[in-house]
């Protein structure tokens, strides 16, 4: 795989009158050609600021941006303009030109390129077909729904056949069905046209259905990064875990358990566990193993299996009846099989609700 975008120790600091805001702090990322790279984080984490650095809408205070092996800090104005033509950008708000119709909006980025008039026309028609807006060529943005406007924004971002497409919350204003349709469209652009996609979102579900890699941002920093499978199967920070839990029902299950005395007691005795496993591990009869190898009885309280990048990923909540030394052995044994076991602390959960 070839690295297409490399961010090295990027800082972005905004100096305002009375305060200094460190929007991005020491972020290093590698995005490969063909990646669909998700960036998640809560509002204010620094996501938009970070991606704006990629096409120089934002100059970094420190660090290097390397695109296709070239350091863009050294680019002339002309080179920056050319770079921007090669990077499609879908803005957090659609940013369409209201006085121009759909055709004219999509045509606009081609102005000043050496594409012939006939070619441009052809390209616009092709893009309108691609995003499913045939028949709406002469409509104005005000005559379109939110989802349709977003399709225009995507078509416009693709006008110059970019190698890279950056999408800043392209679906956050849309209903679930339209969101799915737009995600399918982005997926096709990624898979069929081979366009590298950098996608900002605060919804982990969006990342799960589209991306192959993800970075989690918090307060200007990337706190976790990796393939979707790595991150979903073994999240290293609580923040990442919280994001992942919005995409499965584990959190709901834990909340339900926290309202029942029997489970709160179990968790106080440290016998309630969350068990995570991926891929092959699902073929191992874990529960039977625990009994045969350690004489420990495990009782499944909740179970959820889903597929991520075609790999099964399991989440179980189990009660294990075993003494402390045995539990330690069990943990080590499971870790070797890539099964992660963690205590569930329901007292925290129940006290949180009060
Ligand atoms: N031009 C600016 N001047 C001063 N501060 C800024 C500027 N742009 C962003 N910031 C600050 O940088 C931080 C990160 O903002 P950013 O827009 O990158 O967050 P975000 O993760 O995209 O959030 P959201 O999910 O709400 O879009 C915020 O605290 C914001 O106030
Ligand atoms: Mg933003």
Automatic annotation (TrEMBL):
Keywords: Amino-acid transport, ATP-binding, Cell membrane, Membrane, Nucleotide-binding, Translocase, Transport. One of its GO terms (molecular function) is ATP binding. Pfam families: ABC_tran (PF00005), NIL (PF09383). One of its GO terms (cellular component) is plasma membrane. It catalyses: ATP + H2O = ADP + phosphate + H(+). It comes from the Bacteria. One of its GO terms (biological process) is amino acid transport. InterPro entries: AAA+_ATPase, ABC_transporter-like_ATP-bd, ABC_transporter-like_CS, ACT-like_dom_sf, MetN_ABC, MetN_ABC_transporter-like, NIL_domain, P-loop_NTPase. The keyword Cell membrane applies. Residues 7-244 form the ABC transporter domain. CDD domains: ABC_MetN_methionine_transporter. SUPFAM superfamilies: ACT-like (SSF55021), P-loop containing nucleoside triphosphate hydrolases (SSF52540). The keyword Nucleotide-binding applies. PROSITE patterns: ABC_TRANSPORTER_1 (PS00211), ABC_TRANSPORTER_2 (PS50893). Part of the ABC transporter FtsEX involved in cellular division. Has ATPase activity. Essential for cell division and viability. Belongs to the ABC transporter superfamily. This is Methionine ABC transporter ATP-binding protein. It comes from Apilactobacillus bombintestini. The lineage of its organism: Bacteria, Bacillati, Bacillota, Bacilli, Lactobacillales.
